[in-house]
Amino acid sequence: MNKNRKNIYYEWISIITEIYNNLPDVPALTCPNCHKLGIDFQFIGDLQTKIGYMAIWCPFCLHGIHLSRVRIPDTTQAFSFDTSAEEISKRIPNFIHVKP
Question: What is the pLDDT of residues 24-35, one digit of tens each?
C-alpha cells in the first residue's frame, strides 16, 4: 500500500472522531487531500435504531470517505433509509472515495 494514501485514509478516519466529539457544533475541518477548510458530512440510516452510515467529503476537491454501521447521534440530522436517491444526491455529491 502506498504510505501516503494510507496516511490520508487515517486522516479521514480522525475527522470522524472530530465530528463525533464536537456535535452539534462541529468546527471547520481541514481536508486531508486539498487542505481547504470545509469538510461536510451526512448520516443516513434507520431513524428508530439510530444505526446507519456516514458520508464525509470535501466540497472543494470532492474526496471523502464512507463509513458503515455507525451510530447516528441524537444531536444531528439524518436521512432515513427511505429517503429517495434523488433527494440524497442533492445533499451528498458524487465524491471520490478514499480507500486504505
Answer: 999 999 999 999
